Prior knowledge:
Trna Endonuclease, Chain: A, domain 1, six-stranded mixed sheet, 6 strands
Amino acid sequence: MSLELYALDWLLYEKRCEIALRERSPRMGFCGEPDVIGLTRSRHLVEIEVKRSVSDFKRDRFKASRVRRDLFLDKLPLYFYYLVPNELLEKVQPLTPEWAGLMRGPVDGEPQAVYVVRPAPKNRNSQRLSVKECCRLVRMVANWAMSEARGRNDSLSRFRYGHSVYPDPDYEI
């Protein structure tokens, strides 16, 4: 399972978020495009940024949403975490900013998939999502589900009508 899916599970089952999404943002431009985002019952956001290498982690501090962070604290999530694979934890821990929490991915044989190494401090300036922003988030979920269903339906219809997933060996381009 990918780190993003582990993060989605953590948001849904540990943080009890009502909605959890990948690569979507209800507040355009302010948060950038988070890897994983969750909406709590109190309409606050929890963001998880997945980093798979030290260079990727270092480059993240130059994103516009990180550089201008102090200007938009009210639009940023209530909690912000970095999620890294277990083997990067030692290298990344001293580089983690004070406003971010740190999580590590699973190690073989562990019952839990994601562990919080350092809890994220609460962004006290974070505002709850408006009803309009929540509706936008729900619309994103509905659009995603519909596109998944259409894709699955298209794949199944190929088999129904005798098409194969492999190209015909006699077909020449």
